[in-house]
């Protein structure tokens, strides 16, 4: 019998595990259930491709290290919690010496340096933040190591029951018993898990994904592919512009190259700006499907972002603008119509981006950590 079982080992799950260990000590029995094992990308959705990571550490494994403090509607976060986060993750902006020439050109256009949970002294400027682990960046693995908890991987939950305690069962016939169960499987999988416990038509509704596209073109020897993505940013009311090298953008350009017989374009010659918007929370998570449409208002915001971004690219010397298809990488809000605060039933809690009541349109990791710390400090 465990004292606490957490479903999900990502940003929320790892934070909760670490906080529980610090609060209750080594005698507290804590286990984490993880559907995957080694991290791998999962893609769902048709009109908007939504990507997340299944595996130990979740989507935080391949994050870009962005640290932005946001207001979380409905949840008052004490300032001391943010102070803890900044200290634990060693969050800071890069020095001017760290910037490449292309970053300085963006700075001249009014872009600001993004705060990151990255040790810039250890960063190798490989441009692979979204593809591989490195010692320079904080990830949920750091918290999992501090928590020193049992991690049960490849556990595909098929049933959650409440008898004398909470019981979680998987396809292999394994079951885990616990006094307290915390669902932290993310904006897509948490509603699917909660549906196994309660029957509510609002479960899975209100989904947002922070829709984004990357626009860009050819700028010889810009070397943005070797930069930390989203290192330079500019915030607007409903969207954010950030520097972003995209393999998809490169593919779009090279595909057109062959048609136009343009030769010699390499990855180092591709420059891009990501446009990430506050999309309407009109999506829904179903058991085996995700539905998310781009609304008229979403199109309007994207169009404004494209207009702004294109002007900056032209000022840098880019002549022809290319674009990727719409994607989403921050699913959230999918339990905001069902879960009030954190507790669903006695001993059953939810804590992750699925609780966000409105779209952030910004990197959410700091907000998820803050929410998770609040749960342990004030509720558990």
TrEMBL record:
Top-level lineage group: Archaea
Protein name, as recorded: Glucose-methanol-choline oxidoreductase
UniProt xrefs under Pfam families: GMC_oxred_N, NAD_binding_8
Protein family (similarity comment): Belongs to the GMC oxidoreductase family.
Cofactor(s) this protein requires: FAD
Organism (species): Methanocaldococcus vulcanius (strain ATCC 700851 / DSM 12094 / M7)
Domain 4Fe-4S ferredoxin-type span(s) in chain numbering: 114-144
Keyword Oxidoreductase: yes
Keywords carried by this UniProt record: FAD, Flavoprotein, Oxidoreductase
GO MF term list: flavin adenine dinucleotide binding; oxidoreductase activity, acting on CH-OH group of donors
């Amino acid at each position: 019998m465990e004292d606490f079982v957490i479903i999900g080992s990502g940003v929320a799950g790892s934070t909760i595990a670490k906080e529980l260990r610090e609060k209750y000590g080594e005698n507290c029995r804590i286990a984490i259930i993880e559907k995957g094992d080694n991290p791998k990308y999962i893609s769902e959705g048709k009109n908007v491709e939504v990507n997340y990571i299944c595996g130990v550490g979740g989507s935080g494994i391949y994050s870009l290290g962005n640290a932005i403090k946001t207001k979380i509607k409905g949840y008052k976060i004490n300032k001391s919690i943010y102070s803890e986060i900044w200290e634990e993750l060693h969050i800071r902006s890069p020095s001017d010496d760290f910037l490449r020439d292309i970053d300085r050109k963006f700075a001249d256009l009014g872009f600001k340096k993004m705060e990151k949970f990255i040790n810039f002294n250890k960063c190798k400027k490989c441009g692979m933040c979204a593809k591989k682990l490195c010692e320079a960046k904080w990830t949920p693995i750091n918290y999992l190591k501090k928590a020193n908890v049992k991690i049960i991987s490849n556990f595909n939950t098929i049933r959650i029951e409440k008898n004398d305690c909470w019981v979680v069962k998987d396809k292999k016939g394994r079951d885990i018993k616990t006094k307290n169960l915390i669902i932290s499987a993310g904006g897509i999988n948490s509603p699917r898990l909660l549906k196994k416990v309660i029957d509510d038509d609002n479960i899975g509704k209100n989904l947002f994904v922070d829709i984004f596209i990357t626009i860009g073109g050819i700028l010889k020897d810009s070397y943005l592919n070797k930069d930390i993505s989203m290192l330079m940013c500019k915030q607007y009311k409903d969207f954010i512009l950030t520097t972003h090298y995209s393999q998809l953008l490169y593919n779009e350009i090279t595909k057109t190259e062959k048609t136009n017989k343009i030769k010699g374009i390499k990855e180092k010659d591709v420059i891009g700006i990501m446009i990430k918007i506050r999309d309407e929370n009109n999506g829904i998570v179903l058991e085996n499907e995700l539905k998310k449409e781009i609304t008229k208002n979403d199109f309007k915001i994207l169009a404004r972002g494209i207009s702004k971004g294109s002007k900056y690219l032209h000022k840098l010397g880019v002549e022809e603008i290319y674009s990727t298809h719409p994607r989403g990488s921050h699913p959230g809000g999918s339990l905001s119509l069902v879960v009030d605060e954190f507790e669903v039933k006695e001993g059953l809690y939810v804590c992750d981006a699925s609780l966000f009541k409105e779209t952030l349109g910004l990197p959410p990791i700091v907000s998820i950590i803050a929410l998770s710390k609040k749960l342990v400090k004030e509720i558990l």
